[in-house]
Design brief:
By secondary structure, this protein is mainly beta. 14% of the residues lie in helices and 45% in strands. A hairpin with a 2-residue loop joins strand 2 and strand 3. The N and C termini lie far apart (95 Å).
């Protein structure tokens, strides 16, 4: 064997010894990670005076995730209900979602009560919920 062949052979042996425990060209099964999470599709329905909705997601340990959702600008009559949705990828188990109505300055709307719902997140599935903060009508 030539010196170049020996150096190449030693390099290959060193790479094989230092390589991760998975076989060459094979990665860990990605579906294993998918089995540890699920998805929640939270639809937020808006009061006419609401500019956005803040959705807080809690688990047993506290706040997990937050998202602001705003209605999409669509050509439709102003009396039609406005809504938006957000997908959350969460660990399996129970989660509580709280929707707070916000005004144009992202401050909570005082005449609206937050809506909340508890869901059980299951592996690989999508749980769909609808959240609509309860708002008292404005006086004219």
């Amino acid at each position: 064997m030539t010196r170049t062949s020996i150096a190449t052979l030693l390099t290959l042996v060193a790479l094989l010894l230092l390589a991760p425990t998975t076989p060459l060209g094979c990665a860990e099964d990605p579906s294993i990670e998918l089995r540890r999470v699920g998805t929640v599709r939270a639809e937020a329905q808006f009061d006419p005076d609401t500019a956005a909705i803040l959705i807080d997601v809690f688990d047993a340990d506290g706040l997990v995730e937050q998202a602001h959702v705003r209605p999409a600008p669509l050509d439709r009559p102003t009396d039609d209900p406005r809504s938006a949705w957000k997908l959350f990828t969460l660990p399996i188990g129970p989660h509580r979602l709280v929707a707070t109505a916000l005004d144009a300055d992202d401050a909570p709307v005082g005449r609206c009560q937050p809506a909340e719902q508890t869901v059980e997140v299951v592996p690989i599935e999508v749980v769909a919920i609808t959240l609509r903060p309860a708002c008292t009508p404005t006086r004219m």
